Amino acid sequence: MPWQQLAWAVGAKIRVIPVDADGQVILSEYQRLLGPKVKLVSVTQVSNALGTVVPVKEIVDLAHRNGAKALVDGAQSISHMRVDVQDIGADFFVFSGHKIFGPTGIGAVWARAEILDDMPPWQGGGNMIEDVTFERTRFQPAPNKFEAGTGNIADAVGLGAALEYVEGWGIENIGRYEHELLDYATHLLRPIKGVRLIGTARDKASVLSFTLEGYTTHDVGVALNEEGIAVRTGHHCAQPILRRFGLETTVRPSLAFYNTRDEVDRFIAVVQRLSKAPH
Q1: Given a cut of 80, is residue 279 above it in pLDDT?
Q2: Given 14, 21, 230, 237, which residue is catalytic?
Q3: Is 208 a catalytic residue?
């Protein structure tokens, strides 16, 4: 939606990289879409709807070779894997605080210093101003010129605490454990009669998206909720990717480092019970 709003404002056109049947982007099609008119490439590092880990480093490199800037959305990746913006080579990197166990309503935007220096402020207000008169305003250097008004101090403190918490556990340790849990859950879920896994790329984060034949995704979510198992059902703010698979909604358990195999077993037991029940 933000890209559509930008396109409406400046007259840009949006081209979309297609994905294959496993939910991975098709790099050959991406290369075909690149051309002299492409100014910005935006790519999600991990799909929130499918769990697919996208080869962002390669995508960014191809964008740069084409003379375009590249933005990487790390909202879903930041809590599962170590992110090195220098290694990725992105011009912009963004993520949401609540995806890494922080408060809602706050996130982060990282960009190369020379790009920030060249960009005008997008909002006006105190803190961003170096000097102001009735005739003109002189802004502070980046990044302060983008921090208009009173900052969201409380949530920033909360986000900082969340990042320190994750660092304390070690992101590699978290990623390793979550992958083991994902493999365990996938192995048990896949054979259940009527289950269709959505997003089967080889490289995935710990997101399981599925449907169960004979049930709406809401029905499955309610049954799981009655057993104290919280999942998200719906389109996950990702309707276009789900429609690629002929769906409007899925059930999406998201496994984190605080989950256990016992909890996975309880989740699987509910899906098995539903699968065997007459309906």
Answers
A1: no
A2: 237
A3: no
